[in-house]
Specification:
Shape: globular
Low-confidence stretches: none
Number of helices: 3
Largest sheet: none
Number of domains: 1
Length: 97
Amino acid sequence: MEGCWSRRGCDDEMQGRCPHNVSGEPCPADCHYAACHRPTHVVCEDFGVLLNPKRNYEAAVKQVCRFCEHFLVHGPDIDPNAPNGREKFSGRNRFIL
């Protein structure tokens, strides 16, 4: 099953002209269409969960998912056997709000 963190908040037509739709970069948290209104979206306050080194933060296409408790608990882990798995991680913008 596809997780909610793998879907952008705008439709295909809008993604085609969105200035935030940059390959390999998440939707910024300040974009109106990146807001999450799902009942599962809860801002995580536990630093142990927020800073989980095993979580694959690249799987979240929206920055708001990267501090959502639902994603942090149920999201995918980094595949330790994948080539260059850790090097791909873009932690530089992980918590930009």
